[in-house]
Amino acid sequence: MRGNGSVSIAEQVLAGNRYALSRVLTLIENDAQEGREALKVLFPHTGRSHLIGVTGAPGTGKSSLVNRMAYYYRHPPEGEPKRVAIVAVDPSSPFTGGAILGDRIRMRDLSGDRGVFIRSMASRGALGGLARTTAGVVQALDAAGFDVIFIETVGAGQAEVDIARLAHTTLVVEAPGLGDDVQAIKAGILEIADVLVVNKADRPGATATVRALTEMLKLAHPSQETIMHHGRRMTLSTGVAKKGDGPLWVPPVVQTVAIDNQGIDELAAAIARHRAFLEETGEWQVRDRVRLQSELENMLREALMQRWRDGMADETYRRVLEDVFARRLAPADAVGVLLNGA
Ligand SMILES: Nc1nc2c(ncn2[C@@H]2O[C@H](COP(=O)(O)OP(=O)(O)OP(=O)(O)O)[C@@H](O)[C@H]2O)c(=O)[nH]1
Ligand SMILES: [Mg+2]
Q1: In the predicted model, is pLDDT for residue 102 greater than 90?
Q2: 263 lines ligand 1 (CB under 6 A)
Q3: Residues 6 or more apart from 98 whose CB is under 8 A from it?
Q4: Nearest residue CA, atom 28 of ligand 1?
Q5: Contact assessment for residue 55 and residue 155, using Cβ atoms and an 8 Å cutoff
Q6: Distance CA 68, CA 128 (A)
């Protein structure tokens, strides 16, 4: 292979070569040097895609919904079709059954459409690593010119929250009957939701779930007038509310039946409203900057740690650790000793 092989594969990605894109994504997933080189070339071409995170408890219908949304964007009632990429992240993988079924539905409706690109990511190494490789995969898809990128994750753990942070718009998907008081919805997941989706609205209890979610949004703040969202206080209603220094976003609750294609246009409208909100308020740029800054800082942290590790004799490190274990040295003092290369 030529020395600039990675440059050329990145250029193929930019030229719309799907095979090159698949290869680059694998290189990024494997954290290969060639993947890192390609990302450097791709990076200036990123920042245009609308990143939509989709999270929620296992089996709530996330894959089915994403499939319907992708189809909707490919065949919009008005305007130009959007190019859509789907990244399915499966950090823990205990519920592969649902994921496979979702994938099968996708195969039928979306196969052969070159405006759609689907990628499943398996768990690889530490969860922090997964969030990082997902960020790289999303950047490559962004550079490849997809207008919308869905990022599907299962559950509500830290990994999902980290991955949701990648997104401009985060959908939290609920389904009726997962526990009367919507157990799957924790305070943390309400915090990251930009749109709450009650899927399987054909099932009994959908109205109760909608009510419970609406109540939880109210209860999230004692005054019942404002709620905390992304660490900010906002007035409770659905959609955009005026409060103090400008409009604030309050997550709407949308009902869908993914298997019957119901509520998909309402969901698309809610996503479009959220996007317009992000653009009008400058929040789009804010989220972009927050994402890039945290990516930079994570990489910096890893690089500094690696550099320090390379310059540190194992023997010294073990000795200092033993001193800490024996309570002879406080951790803070140990840091001083280790950084000063004693
Ligand atoms: N009744 C009903 N079933 C649905 C609906 N949407 C999805 N399902 C079914 O629910 C099951 C799970 O759907 P998936 O789309 O795979 O759910 P998921 O959230 O992606 O699942 P995981 O990725 O495993 O967490 C499948 O059997 C779907 O056919 C719906 O609106 N109503
Ligand atoms: Mg799924």
Answers
A1: no
A2: no
A3: 58, 59, 63
A4: 61
A5: yes
A6: 30
CA of 119 to the centre of ligand 2 (A): 12
Alpha-carbon dihedral sign for residues 296, 48, 145, 66: positive
Tell me: pLDDT of 209 over 70. yes
Which atom of ligand 1 sits closest to the CA of residue 257? 31
Question: Which pLDDT score, from 0 to 100, does residue 341 have?
Answer: 64
pLDDT of residue 124: 54
CA-to-CA distance for 272 and 225, rounded, in angstroms? 25
Q: What are the backbone angles phi and psi of residue 196, rounded to the nearest 5°?
A: -100, 130
C-alpha of residue 269 to centroid of ligand 1, in Å: 22
State yes or no: pLDDT of 17 exceeds 90: yes
Q: Are 228 and 171 in contact (CB under 8 A)?
A: no
The whole model's pTM is what? 0.85
CB-based contact 58:94 (threshold 8 Å): yes
Q: Which residues surround ligand 2, an ion (CB under 5 A)?
A: 62-63, 99, 102
What the block records as the tokens of 265 is 């246009």
CATH H-level superfamily of 46-281: P-loop containing nucleotide triphosphate hydrolases (3.40.50.300)
Segments of the chain assigned E as strands: 50-56, 84-89, 116-121, 148-154, 169-174, 195-198, 226-229, 232-235, 239-243, 246-250, 253-255
Binned at pLDDT 50, 70 and 90, residue 253 comes out as very high
Residue 196 one-letter amino acid: L
pLDDT computed for residue 168 by the predictor: 94
pLDDT tens string 276-319: 999 999 999 998 998 899 889 988 998 899 999 998 999 999 99
Closest ligand 1 atom to the C-alpha of 201?
31
Query: Is 47's pLDDT higher than 90?
Result: yes
Q: Is 205 exposed, middle or buried (0-12, 13-18, 19+ CB in 10 A)?
A: middle
